[in-house]
Amino acid sequence: MKKIQLFLTLLLCMVFASADAQQNWNFASMSQADKDLCAADANWVLGTDRYCYTKELTEAALVANGVELSYAKGLKFTASAPSDNTEGKAKIRLNYGSSRMELNGTNVTIIIPGLTAGQTVTVSCMTGKNGVARGLNVTNLTPVSGSFNSTSTEKQTNVGTVTADGDVQLSASAGMYVYSIEVGEGGGTDPVNPSTGSNVAMNMNKNQMRVTLNTNDVKYYNTESVSSVNINGGNITVNPANGNAADVYEGNVKNLAFAKAKDGGQSGDIDSPAGAVQISESKGWLESVYAKWTPYSGAESYNVYCNDKKIDEQLIRLYPSFVRADVLGLAAGTYNLKVVAVDKDGNEIAGSASTVSNLQVKNYSREGFAHFHSKSVGVGAYNNDGTLKKGAKVFYVTAKTAKTISTEVKGAGTCTGIQAIIDGYQKGEDKTPIAFRFIGLVKKDNLDKVSSSSEGLQIKGKSEYSEMNMTFEGVGDDATVHGFGFLCRYAKGVEFRNFAIMRCMDDCISLDTRNAEIWIHNMDFFYGPNGGGDHAKGDGTVDLKDDSQYLTFSYNRFWDTGKSSLCGMKSETQPNYITYHHNWFDHCDSRCPRVRTMSVHVWNNYFDYVAKYGVGSTTGSSVFVENNYFRGTNRPMMSSQQGTDATGDGTFSGEKGGIIKSFGNVFAENSKYFSFITYQKNNTSFDAYEASSRDEQIPASVKTLVGGTSYDNFDTNSSLMYSYAADAAEDVPAIVTGFYGAGRINHGDFTWTFEDIDGHNSASYAYDAKLGSALDNYKTTLVKVYGEGGSSTETGSGSGSGETGGETGGTETGGGSTETPEGTVLCTFTGKTPSSSIFTVTGNYSTSKGTATIDGNVYDTCVKMESSTSIDFTLSESKKVTIYFADTETASIKIDGTKKKGSESSYTETLAAGAHKLTKADSRNVFGIKLEPVE
Q1: Per-residue pLDDT tens for 404-419?
Q2: Which residues lie closer than 8 Å to 630 by C-beta, 6 or more apart?
């Protein structure tokens, strides 16, 4: 016996897999060889796309022209002779046209010979008469789920466990359709002691072990509550840490894996002295930090400094019980905040300052086709390091300012109002990067106008794929637009992030025609207008079509959306490459996504009780579905008119099919409606080709049943694919629902629990009237935006693209302060700008000159000391100044014209109060400057 101790701090994933199902029959199609055999045998009659047997059978195989048909090879049948030799009277009909076997009449029996006690038998079947309840009666099989030995009017997936060694019989109570039969190795028994079992509910706040049974049921264990796991052949014993009886699984485990708990984010180190502003919460997030504090008595406003640089006042907002500030546009690194109360005269209140240190900021993931194609330019108004592009404009859009923000747009003159400014860019003359930052709740009536009568705000280029350099983003966790959406047409370089869209006009975001390099991430998408029927939840949510290409959709949360994402029409004329990763499809219905014509990579998404289907492929598309977690999702993948879509009445599409390549996906907590047919189970009518490795190429001989198209293998072409690091599928739920996961920061201000009530459950796609009412009545709790209507001081100082043009609403020089802050100040250059406003840099930055280690932290951005470079600063009192160079360099610099050298990678000198200038002595690179009090 092999004993596995759970050293979970080291163990990421361990897989135990029993043998694959030993016998499978899928009746979705019939081979040409079988058809030829039946055509040559007079005992078989060809009807309408079905071959019908006209003789009696007694525990006999299906044979034609002396050869057992591969269609049902290994099965035996008992059936009486039909009353005549016509199609309608035949007892057994192989209906390849409707992808099923038909048992016509009572006492028609399928026999599965020679099974072993404990094996599982899964049968997909349906009554042969619409609306009339029928079923299959079984012998030597103990029903586990479904309708064995009972009846139903619905299509059923029935599961049973073989009772004793021997044959299993399936007998029709009346006419029945049978779609597939699967025999699994091992039984379907639960743990020996289910009443005292130590398994628990899925909990992403805990490290958990997941035991997946052959029935696709999943048992979860908190790893802190498990002492060890014993594996003995096909048997698994889970020993609880509390000494209670073990849970024993006897040959019925398909998979054993471990999932890490979700990340809750790291709080900064808060220092709030008595009598000062009391900071209650502060964390770094993705390219931003935030802090919340209790309103300070006597404060008219507040000043907030990030690494000694004062932030825009509009980023500070008042709520009923707290004040919150968010700082945006930060590169990855460590940051400090200082919050100071300001009185009615504009003076900082003495003794009110509080600080937060060690705030850790991460970058957004820029993996995907949008950034692969844009390369180093950056999508939208931001550089790839998270900082604003050079010369970027920033506008704060609130319910009060959406109509009044104003700027000069080259070629369009003065434009006032958010839509007017966007329209001005349609002239094509102004490429200045521009960031629109939504604060609080903004409704359609708050806008100056909408240029799309069907969608809302329109971002339209002058001609196809026009560079726009626009970012639409939310400030904090409550930015919400209500009653309108967005239309992109002919646009390139547009980003949407960190806000919610509720009750849009048609789609939340429509990428209508010939767009490129669009990045939609960390958004919350809710219902559109209730149009009734299949439009009860709105039309589409995020739709793209008509040669829109190189797009990335990542870390978005779709809240019970009906038609989540249509990807492609039939009018595309060129390859279009699309990425979906780390999205949370939360109780959605379908189209996650639905793909036509395009080449799409779907990876690391969380399909959380998706009712109709997950990924759909039609019209010759190629879709790579990799390392996703499908939880309670009935039909994870479907291709039009084949596989699951060809069973029953069809649930997906009447279009030609597409090819899905599947690899590394997890299917957990499956319902009785679950269906997933791989190419390996049925090589003519399948949902997906199950790859043995991520880099496996699908042979050209693998084609769709309708349309005859093959997979284009875009994902193994290094010239087409981007670099990415896929997470293990087991970790996806915790990642996507964690602090750095899908949706807005802090997962937004709107909470909702999907309950299995009023007919709204995992198998239902009904409109949730309670959720709809909550969205209709949503109100913001925002009380005040400090500095509302004022100009931004942020313009960006990075090296990103974008021409300057028009008023920016303020300038940022990176220096000029004449008052030296108290205490120790460290200035670094992450984001290619000084982190302290004391310093003014004239010169060039670099991220390729090595690194410098300062106080245990590693920095990779420096000022290149060239002949024209200068770093100027003014001290209001004497300070000890330390200048940090690359770890591989020795110090060399001119201070106020005098050359200074050191034997190590830093140089320290005490400088008197007054103005100072650092210039080049030798070719060196400055990574940081520290000012310390003189003792």
Answers
A1: 999 999 999 999 999 9
A2: 607, 610, 614, 636, 665, 666, 667, 668
